[in-house]
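Schema walk-through. Below, the input block comes first and the output block second. Nothing else is stored per chain. Lengths vary across the set, and this one has 312 residues.
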Amino acid sequence: MKSSPSPASPETRGSWQSLAGTRAFAFWAFLAVIYGQLALSLIPIWSDGTYYDYGWLSLVLVPVFFLARWREVGLDEATLEERLRRLAVSLPVMAVVLTSIVVITLLRMTQWADSSWRPPLILHGFTVLALTAFLLYRLQGRSISAYWGCALVVLLVVPLPMRWEFVLIHWLTEGVMEFALFVNRMMGLPLISQGETIFANGIPLQVSDGCSGIRSFQSGIFAGFALGEFLRLPLVSRLLLLASGLGFAFLMNGCRVIYLVRHAVAHPDSDLDKVHDMTGYVTLTITFLLIAGTGWLLARIDEGMKKRRAQA
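--- output ---
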């Protein structure tokens, strides 16, 4: 006669809980390491003071957004422990993880030689996101679609390819110049332009990439996506917030160039570099405030629509 299995002793249950806790800790530590390596590879781009310095905010925003989504669609403790155990003994999963680690290591070696080379940085970002999506899909299935906002925030702090960035800067520079010329001429100030230079009463004013609005443009995109994720806006509202952010960035930078032209004409002996930098900070701040106000308004409208649907 076979004896029935005795229930697990407290010591046995404690050891299993400890092992499961170790698996969970290892999973979170692994994610922290691969995203930490991505952040280290991007820090030189964020620190050069040009277009991507908003990337520092992602060190706080991405974990906050990810954990918020995890609480919503995450697994209960028992299910998480069981699925982590299955991942740990799955040869295909281990093969994907090890291959990704090798790829990331090779990319990091390339970045040590030249930290400003864009293709390895872009490939590094996509590799980390693809590996995260693969692991989350094995843990949570199709509910990983809830993390799309987090993934976009990560992508926005990865630099664009140099060719795309050049085309974007050129397009914005032309747009800002045409807007500034039109408004100043409507206000009675005779201006002529040649290439990227505006001549006001014989005073040349160079409208280069620093005045193009690329910094406001990309910061506005990041702010719109980050605010949309923070407020949990629906897709239509997020698109409206993004469009308004781009519009505000272009408008405020156009106003900045208009002011700089008129200031140069009124004060030809002034230090235009100081005024240039100060107006840049002012317009960037106003752009963020306008985006924040638009996000708040869209959130209120969305909340009101939800209440009306609930009452109907």
